[in-house]
Amino acid sequence: MNIYDKKTMGETIKGNEYVGRGIVIGMTEDAKKAAIAYFIMGRSENSRNRVFREEDNSEVVIYPFDESKVEDPSLIIYSPIKKFENKTIVTNGDQTQTMTRPRPSTSSSSRASASTERSTPAASNRTARTGRPESPVSSTTMRTALTIR
Fold first, then answer.
1. Residues 6+ positions from 140 with CB-CB distance below 8 Å
2. Is the Cβ–Cβ distance between 9 and 25 less than 8 Å?
3. Segments making up each domain of the chain, as ranges
4. What's the pLDDT tens digit per position in 80-113?
5. How many Å apart are CA 120 and CA 64, to the nearest integer?
6. What is the reported pTM?
């Protein structure tokens, strides 16, 4: 693979039946703006049961399309793109929440308040399984792009 070849996304993934998840970073066609795209495919019914939503023009959130079909929310609910301070964070999972969480100060009372998480069924499920709180947001088989202004 030549990293300097200019190809469309279609040309890049052609012939690959399952590309999984991906982060694409580049420029708009007129080269005036940076562009970021996140995409995901799903093999299982649980993984395909997702939709992207943009919230507050600052975050891409992934929710279950049909909540009655959710098997394990900790695997499909996260925010892959989020504006934070003057940065745009793009990750392949719940790392986005970790990277945008306020950093605790050295005092113990600040640490306690900084580690408080929003409580959701997904959060409590993941916390019980891994000891880490789950991002309260989610992902899908659709594509989304957020242009940096």
1. 40, 42, 48, 50, 51, 52, 62, 65
2. no
3. 17-147
4. 999 999 899 999 888 888 888 887 776 544 444 3
5. 14
6. 0.61
